Records
---
Amino acid sequence: MTIGAIRRNAPLWISIGAGVALWEIAGRLTSAAFMVPFSETLVRLWQLITRGEFLVQLFDSAELFLTGFVLALIVGAPLGMLLARVRLLRIGIEPYIMTLYATPMVALIPFILSLMGFGFAPKVLVVFLFAVFPVLYNTVEGARSIKPEMIEVAKSYRSTEWSLWREVMLPYTLPYMMTGVRQAIGRALVGMIAAEFFLSSTGLGQLIMGASQDFDTAGVFASILVIGLIGVGLTRLGLMIEQHFAHWRQ
Amino acid sequence: MTETSIGASSAVVAAPPATSRPAAFSGSFVPRLLTGLVILLSWEIVVRAVAPPYVAKPSTVVLAIPRVMTDPEFLRALGATLAAVTEGLAITIVAGTAIGLLMGRSAIVDRMIRVYINGFNALPMIIVLPLFSLWFGYSGAARIGTIIFAAIFAITMNVADGARSVPREFLEVARSFRSGRWRMLTDIVLPASMPYLLAGFRLAAGRALIGAVVAEFFLSIGGLGYYILYNSRAYHHNEAFVGVLLLAAFGVSFELLVNWCTRHFMPWYRRGA
């Protein structure tokens, strides 16, 4: 690391250091049931990791997250592109996508529970439902940004349907789609935890719920810390993906 | 940063079909209506064909609407949730705006807390429920806490972006007329950040609603979320689904309200122009 990089990042590290110190002090001053110091949280986290159950739960959650998220992409992206191409279909479906995008999907969890029970599939469905509408909504929004003249010009040069999709549709909708992907990452994470809380209890959701039921405050803080770091990492990733394609936007 | 620009730009992009209402009605009303009918019809047919009779389908949900809407228990649940969301959002707007303005106008504050605001914002909000249930017990306080936690960072981040993007000339003019810091904040920075505040509010309102529902699931305290949970467990899916419809209506009306407010109260606001 160069001196310049250190100096640039100094406020960040000072701020993180101050936060950790504050956490430590607050944890020591309050009762252990309310809050535990940072050091104890780390000790507890280390215990969880070395006992092995933590990694198993992490793996469980990752499997759920990835399955639901990938399914949402596989369905959302092509469907969004199709809506981009077929104008009438888009006009027809758009308000419903917008409605579902704004609907709190958590409200559907009790129905999914009573219809599909406690398996893996209903949980994937929850993650999928959380993630698919941001992708669809934003892709359709991108589709609106394509000027009809573009497609007309392509058509008049006898562009094939395939090259029309590849050369016109994809570059225009992709930046918007990636905004959807970024939003979907965050939502899928919420969906994952919600599924693990309210459907069969597994993964990181179970870890934190179990800790809370045992009044193991250190365990709760350790799980929140880990999930927070995962959240920050995934959000970063989403932003990077979005920004990578952002300059395509016109 | 990106959050706002995306949120705000989508508000602008989303506006045209609503503004050009006559055209929207003549051109797109029929396909929209048809699509809606097709969706409802296929839902009805599929459920009738394969699902057990208690599963919600359009015909029975419609029949349940008047029954549910006059049910005092439902109205109490609705009132409880709305009161909690309103209270939580009120606290969120005041606190979130204050923190956001501080962050936007003070580089030191910004550097100190930005990493935490970003971090908390990236946290799946419902993760705090087990902690809040330890702290506040299984009570309304835990629900309010969840609502605030779910909503506040969206407001703070957006207001901070707004306060940062106030045109420098505005502040220079104010300063040369010897305006005080406080007046500059309330008379220039705050109004200039309003579109951002509204974009943040749109996000925050949706999240607050989700926070309230999830808190009621988790804590089993009375409200719309608990009403949905209870009735779906009792195989009263139609009644429960009316609750979902209402939630969807709230979600959409928040969206429309913010779009409308931006157009009518802030016609001067043109993003990217």
---
Amino acid sequence: MNENPDTQARQIMDNLTLYYGPKKKFVAICAGTGCRASGSLKVKEALEAELKKQNLSDVDVLATGCLGFCEKGPMMVIHPDKYFYQHVKVEDVPEIISKTVAKGEVISRLLYRHPETQKTLFREEDLPFYKKQHRVVFGQNGMIDPARIEDYFAINGYQALGKVLSEMTPEAVIGEVKKAGLRGRGGGGFHAAVKWEGVRRAHGDPKYVIANGDEGDPGAYMDRSLMEGNPHSVIEGMIIGAYAVGSNQGYIYVRNEYPLAVTHLTKAIADAREMGLLGKNILGTDFSFDIQITKGAGAFVCGESSALFASVEGRAGEPRAKYVHAVEKGLYDKPTVLNNVETWANVPLIINKGADWYNTIGTEGSKGTKIFSLVGKINNTGLIEVPMGTTLYEIIYDMGGGIPNGKKFKAVQTGGPSGGCIPESLLDIPVDFDKLYEVGSMMGSGGMIVMDETSCMVDVARYFLEFLKEESCGKCVPCREGVRRMSDILEDICAGRGREGDVEILEAMGKAIADGSLCALGGSAPNPVLSTIRYFREEYDAHIRDHRCPAGVCKALISYSIDAEKCTGCGVCVKVCATKAISGEKKKAHVIDKEQCTRCGACIQSCKFDAIHVK
Amino acid sequence: MVNMMIDGKNVSAPKGTMLLESIRGAGIAVPTLCAHEAISRSGACRLCVVEIKKGNRTRIVTSCLYGVEEGLIVDTKSERVLNVRRLVMELLLSRCPESDVLQKMARDMGVAPQPRYAVDTDKGKCILCRSCVRVCEEVVGVSAIGLFSRGSYKEVGTPYNEKSEVCIGCGACAYVCPTGHIEMISTGDRRKIWGRTFKMQACPKCGKFFAPVDQLKFISKKTGTSMEELSVCTECR
């Protein structure tokens, strides 16, 4: 292990990156999974062909990872002016090249239009979605093609590693991360440096370093976008961590459902190896470290540390009691640092810019930024990175652009399926690890699902418990049997079979399951139920006592009717009704046969006159 | 030795041992279903939970897996502990309504079935404590049975529920099963278990059918003892 400053490492690093300065003219086209789905790769090909055609060989096209504003894909940012174009099509490409790239002229139809003022906004940073963000980790995605290590060099990539290996002792690295107050982004919020210190001190050889990329929350894709969009930042963080704790072997655990992440990580590891940044004698020092990718099969529980270890070891992904911590007995019972992908990506930044800089971002107990995936009933769906301590209100209304179709906000669920639902009255709380826990939810890995007045909170709880029931590994009784029974009761309530006393049973079960379960999956599984009971008790009562679903969601408790005043008799609903439940004479008010109606909602969506009501 | 306070009593215990042993050693009863002296512990049933206090922090742990610690304050009957145990018993009673072992245990603990839970009809008496799987792997060393599927679909069985080629019919799984779920039928020179029928060895001296031939062959191969020697039952040997 290299304990001494090593100037040679710095020199090798400098030689390696000598030729890669920052780029001037380039088009960054988002090629994250979301934008790929909306056709961004075709646009990229067209861009390259058109540049050739117009003889603009000095302009580079970067197929970047996710740029965050997934709602607007395919999107691109044209540098150096940073013009932001949304919903770009192949047909737009010749004009983009001839006008914007060649002459710096903007094409206004491709610009973002402010939803309220209707003013067109030119630059990425002018957009309300981006304006309040602080994209220190995620922002790098827009500057690099993740498949090219040179691009990472060009944005100071691996400089932190160079600094660590040439100037810092392992203790100094841990000290800096500790001073920065970096807490785990995977859910628990445990202090990274404390883990690192524990592993450094632990007896046992070898020691392992693992990145947890088993992002399993429905609707969450922060880690995927980092692995896809900036794999080297994760790898660099891991190498620094390995140096700090004294490990020579690392693993990235990534789910196989993330094929692009696997591809980019594989390429990045191979490139880093070729450059001497991974493998034996990194940068000429006597420190050696390599990384292997382990593909998970998609079990939610494998994001739990001990289940993840079991899975890497080739056993069934089941957690075990963690009374002896992973820093002493982790993977193969050896000292192990397991950090989330986003945590690792923060490490190079801390080393490069220093703990003091890092400390200027965030709150007292939670430093730095956090990436959230903002989904659900929200105008601006996408990934955002904000300083810890940003309020939920700012996230939902300033960046998220509020609730679509003039509907009223009801709740936001943070922390993934086993997080809690936070009501409107608490939107002013600053988002950090401790505050979210206080209000009965959690940070989790950063999922944020927004719900409006058309979401039934009992149904939401039912949905998440159903998910958790399916994802329980089945090892311990409270989680396997308890979550199933809670799910059954919620199913009953939504189907109109709720009984007086059900809420009290759910509460008692929730507490005992949280106390009695073996791992954090069971420990937090009751959260969606307990938090919705805490903040939306009246909705439970309405279902159980009045056989009424106030949000009009639970099919057994609602009925559809047509407002005779509003109905024009256009007959559109008749055509979409699969059960032929709607009838009426042309141009006269129609009626719904409640016996035939399956309450699928197709008629409501088809009606232009808002004439169909749910009660 | 470490010193602890268990339900207000001073108890000392050798380092490296588990709380469960010290608690029972102090004459305090703790219910368990999955802890068996012959096999490693999984912490699956959660009945042995206790509340521990270390500094200002209290938490619920499974005593079968929690190592003794100096200065630990243990409460084996706190409200939180009893709530977890009650929940576990209620859940198991609805999973395995026919198990007399569970019914007796529940009666002793003062727990009645929770009427709000539907009663399962397809789980038999299996509580998925995994004692059978562990004994087959750790003691017998053949791993003829394992756990498959996940969550509430989890089951114990042979791979693909087919007749196991490695099973030696020893019946260790049936012996450790706390609820009597695993069916082993021995009639004369035949023993049926896990869908396979094993030929039993008769002792040449007393004539008793005492073990499956496959088991004796397995032992002979493992230990190098001759089949002639092993064919005599332990009582006549």
---
Amino acid sequence: MAWEISHLQALEAESIHIIREVASEFQRPVMLYSIGKDSSVMLRLAQKAFFPGPIPFPLLHVDTTYKFKEMIEFRDRYTAELGLKLIVHTNQKAIAEGANPIKLGTERCCGFLKTQALLEGLRMGNYDAAFGGARRDEEKSRAKERIYSFRDTLGQWDPKNQRPELWNVFNSRIAPGESIRVFPLSNWTEMDVWQYIHLENIPIVPLYYAKEREVLVRGNSIIIPEQGFMGPREGEKMQVMKCRMRSLGCSPCTGAVESDADTIPKIIAELVAVRKSERENRVIDHDREGSMEIKKREGYF
Amino acid sequence: MPPKTNVSVAPDASFDVEHFLAQEQAKDLLRFTTAGSVDDGKSTLIGRLLHDAKGAYEDQLKQAIRGGEIDFSLLTDGLRAEREQGITIDVAYRYFATPKRKFILADTPGHEQYTRNMATGASTADLAIILLDASRGITTQSMRHAYIASLLAIPHFVIAVNKMDLVNYDEEVFHRLRAEFAPFLTRLGVNEAYFLPLSALKGDNVVDKSKNMPWFDGHSLLHQLETVDTTPSTLDAPFRMAVQRVVRPDMNFRGYAGQILSGIVRPGDTVLAQPSGRRSRVERIVTWDGDLEAAHAPLSVTLTLADEIDISRGDMIASGPDPTSARSFEATVVWFDSKPLDLAGDYLVKHTSQIVPVRLEAVEYRVNINSLHSEQVTSLAMNEVGVVRMTAARPLFFDPYRENRGTGAFILIDRKTDATAAAGMIVTAASGGVESSTDRVVRLVRAAIPTGARLQLPEDDEAAVKQLRELFKGLMRHE
């Protein structure tokens, strides 16, 4: 018997340890479920962590109402199949007031529909720990975030005053009203996530696979216009393109990439070839220098 | 002509993805750490490694271009404050891979006021890169880094003699520094260290072997990172698993979930459960992917035992020589909190999966992290290192940190502020205080009581019931 373990086995063992630890030490944990590939992996790890028992916490999806339709279909079908408790929360007030990224700009729109909605959803459930699927390799400010990321009573992150984190010994002590965000996939890379999905046959939203789709090309972005306000402007025309999503978000702000990758091995092959960071197609990270860090300080994931 | 879009690069037709996936699955993981400040070229070294080993993404590279050239240090400094001040104040984790291995780098600042960050980065590392500056000789800073790395018991050391370009790639300089530094490492108890001369700025011996130093018969830094043995040293240690959670989906299944801290376990093995002191046989090693015939550190598993023993979160399942069970122990402590150690303070110790109130009895001495001399003190301030004697409210089940990083490590939490006040590495059970007579009685009673026995609790004496519950934690039903 060989005693070496692969990097994926090492990462899996680490993540399971984190998920079990949080479920045991906090009163009201919840798993933030964004329907994307990272959430899918996190969910599988949670299944493994408590096997043969059930996952002992609910899932929370913060729905901006601008997510791709296929994402919502997938969400409802998959969570029902696994028998999980799913809570969906939307900032209804902002939606009623007509919040959208064109009207408000991406920064303010995210502020209302993601950050504020998330904080509201967490407060309403009185959750003291929320799992998120963020990875440190996604963005520079995330590279320094702890696995247990402490948030004050307003849900804010203070990057200069983070609790030191050593070994796998986590400090779970918080005062009433304070909470933590937990990132069990902190040490995973995009490549690790895809390989794990491949090895484990984890279901993912079909938008990740390339197929012919009706799109709109605007500047450097390939948009799938599901919302009326994203329709063709003067001089723009819909066209058919074989494309796919490298990461999933709101349809107005998440661009597709032209691609032929319609299987996971092909996606992995593409990843090897492209070697561009996946977040490049996410408008929100490029609002301004260090924009992810600013959002995170305010409570964004 | 189609408009210019985000066209992704199609894979090379000759790229064999199945072969690639097979190769990827065989890859193991090396966690390593560096420490250094702006002047010693640490960021440049890391940037160079990420760039030349193709670990940095292209759009991140674009952001790091200053004056037409890549400023490698910009690849690694993540936070705004750091970019503004040009310093590294925290631990940044970096991920890259080569065809041979995956790497996680904990990149930490080097100044004395960031000792705690260095300790954090070192805690999970399998390998430490200690930078020496060829143009300046051995500095206090390099010695401090080596000390912290040895304190956290990192198994492998690479001593990188950097800035060789500034001394004309002089062989003499390299040999002189090695001769000076090696005895220091021996003093620290570091038995394995790989010395190599390099220039991060020019790329000598970072990824490829340098032509500028033909006199050096070793290999490059990356080669060393790719080939160092990663078989965990925890494999040779006896089996230890702290119970994180009891998995009990129905009446027919009762499993103990945890991550194996050290050693190997197989069905049929006799194990000891602490604090009950009872022994049983491992029946199954349960995982989502099916039962295992053997499992080893650091896998996360669920064990079922042949006998029904009351085991709860915080308990230890072990085989081989029994872990030490003691309430009083001595530990090397790195103080993290801006509030100094207070012998009258209120602290908790989190050790494996248990959190227990702890009293700090005495600071035996402080280690001057620059001279390594012992100093008599009664407190430790932030970033200071010392040996502290302490007594926990319940016994901890441990091995010395030097022998077992998993069962020898703990953190101290300030009860008033919830801050992580310190990190600790257990040296030994405190002399004289190994086991109090109460602990001894409790232990003997625990071992003697057959499982499932019911204890008649005095109904009118709340204090006695509370004390009984505390003393016999894990044996009481309905807890």
